[in-house]
Write a structure and sequence with these properties.
This protein is of the alpha+beta class. It has 14 helices and seven strands. Helix 4 packs antiparallel against helix 5, helix 6 packs across helix 14 and helix 12 crosses helix 14.
């Protein structure tokens, strides 16, 4: 079967069918399902994916289910988990893929336990319909849109696991469910950022402020490298290659979960030299006044106290605007920000991180924001 659709096994097939659906990757998924009458009520029973479950396997399972139903029994009895049971199993399986220290597991549990479990937690997964999913999402759709969208995706993950295990044949929480919910007409709120022409002035105020040396230097380094605050706060001296003038950000510190090389401008190296003079009992490049990791909100608090009119993350946007206006190629600018290539085809063929081009760009950016000279 090469075309999407539902294909029956014909007369004598005991309600067996094969559901063929396209996936995001462009391939086809094929799943066995059986439609039976149990206690006079039509039900769908998932029998698992092809080719893990062969046609012969599916036919034998369908026949056995039909025999159980004929005797007045329920083929699903004692084996179909509730949504809560299935969700907890999915969380256990996904735990290995989450980064150490990640909040993903806590966020999954919190959203499912707060909104989904009270409505569908005790319901067998093969009885959950789109109407049930809507009953979960509708109360929070307008007031907590981001939470609701993430919750829908998590319910969908659980349903797909159930399809793979043969507990049901379709996903009642796929993206189509959002079509009947109110559309989001609000404008996306971006993090406050400065026009790039005001960055040099902002940095001058940071240098003149009475802030702890480690915090002031960390703020300057954040702007000069266009890096994320978390990468700066956790930076250690063994990540700095003085000879090659490179900061090697380890995968566990990056948002994308992969190592990122940052070419260091002369101005960034000056900041590191100043940081090397700070008293520290740790290997941290920018220790707090107590010698530990700088607090998560410390740099944001400094920006607010100085009334810079932006948040630390906004300087990445300032850098991106400057790059666009000075003729820096899109691919080079995106690589400098460690953004992941979204297009799977482009990502498959991209083998360069434009490092040498980025070195020249960061030199120009460093001179611009420290001296206000447009390269």
């Amino acid at each position: 079967m090469k075309r999407p659709g539902r294909y029956g096994d014909g007369r004598g097939g005991h309600g067996l069918s094969l559901l063929v659906k396209p996936t995001k990757s462009g391939r086809l998924s094929k799943t066995w399902a059986q439609r039976l009458r149990i206690d006079g009520k039509p039900v769908n029973i998932g029998l698992g994916p092809y080719p893990v479950v062969t046609l012969g396997d599916a036919r034998r399972a369908a026949l056995e289910n039909r025999r159980v139903a004929f005797r007045g029994g329920d083929p699903r009895a004692g084996k179909t988990p509730t949504f809560a049971e299935a969700a907890r199993q999915v969380i256990r399986l996904r735990r290995a893929s989450w980064r150490r220290g990640s909040k993903s597991e806590a966020q999954w549990k919190a959203s499912l336990e707060s909104y989904a479990f009270p409505v569908i937690g005790d319901k067998p997964v093969d009885e959950i319909t789109t109407a049930h999913v809507l009953a979960v999402l509708t109360p929070i759709w307008n007031g907590k849109r981001v939470t609701a969208r993430r919750l829908r995706a998590r319910i969908s993950h659980v349903m797909k696991w159930c399809i793979g295990r043969g507990y049901r044949s379709e996903d009642p929480a796929d993206r189509a469910v959002t079509a009947v919910l109110p559309q989001d007409v609000s404008r996306k709120q971006h993090m406050a950022a400065l026009p790039h022409r005001e960055v040099a002035g902002a940095l001058a105020r940071v240098r003149a402020a009475k802030a702890a040396p480690g915090i002031s230097l960390a703020f300057q380094y954040l702007v000069l490298t266009a890096a994320r605050a978390g990468e700066i706060r956790k930076a250690t001296w063994d990540e700095v290659d003085w000879t090659e003038r490179v900061w090697n950000v380890p995968a566990q510190h990056t948002k994308a979960g992969r190592e990122h090389r940052v070419p260091l401008s002369g101005e960034a190296l000056d900041v590191l030299r100043a940081a090397r003079e700070l008293p520290s009992v740790s290997n941290l490049v920018f220790p707090s006044s107590r010698g530990g990791v700088i607090g998560r909100n410390t740099l944001a608090v400094l920006a607010q106290r100085l009334e810079l009119g932006c948040v630390p993350h906004g300087f990445r946007s300032s850098f991106r605007d400057w790059a666009a206006e000075t003729g820096v190629g899109r691919e080079v600018a995106e690589a400098a920000l460690a953004h992941v290539v979204q297009d799977p085809v482009e990502a498959a063929y991209r083998r360069t991180d434009f490092f040498e081009q980025r070195r020249a760009v960061m030199e120009q950016w460093g001179a611009y924001v420290m001296g206000g000279v447009l390269a």
